[in-house]
Amino acid sequence: MSIIEHVVLFKVKGDTEQEKVNAMLNNLNGLVSLDPVLHLTAGPVHRIKSPILNFTHMLHSRYKSKEDLNTYSAHPEHQRVVKENVIPICDDIMAVDWVADNDPTPLSLPPGSAFKVTFLKLKESVSNEVQGGILGEIKGVKEGISGIQQM
């Protein structure tokens, strides 16, 4: 079964009142009640290993299809939360979506679960053939190490 994974990273402005950060997280987490959402959770980032990226919070959600993700994105409640609670307090936002093919993991994670996400950005000058080879190697690493699961 294919699942659409949706991750959004947020960099909250340094001078933002904690009350506003809590409101953002509460409202983002409330979007789990929207029909197309299979799983959604938002919270502070524990650690980020990047000298140039310093995001403070993250949202992870799952959908059955690209259409469901589009429906979620266009939903008035999602639009309201972004406009009222996210944009006013964030300096930077980055969203990443991908198709997780043949994913055996449960649709939603148990409460209190931790997961590690690694994003790779290939140079734009790399050919499609080389990109395919790199992605193939990454999949091979995953298959060779037990305990690594696609979320």
UniProtKB/TrEMBL annotation:
<dbReference type="Pfam" id="PF07876">
    <property type="entry name" value="Dabb"/>
</dbReference>
<feature type="domain" description="Stress-response A/B barrel">
    <location>
        <begin position="4"/>
        <end position="98"/>
    </location>
</feature>
<dbReference type="InterPro" id="IPR044662">
    <property type="entry name" value="HS1/DABB1-like"/>
</dbReference>
<dbReference type="InterPro" id="IPR013097">
    <property type="entry name" value="Dabb"/>
</dbReference>
<dbReference type="InterPro" id="IPR011008">
    <property type="entry name" value="Dimeric_a/b-barrel"/>
</dbReference>
<protein>
    <recommendedName>
        <fullName>Stress-response A/B barrel domain-containing protein</fullName>
    </recommendedName>
</protein>
<comment type="subunit">
    <text>Homodimer.</text>
</comment>
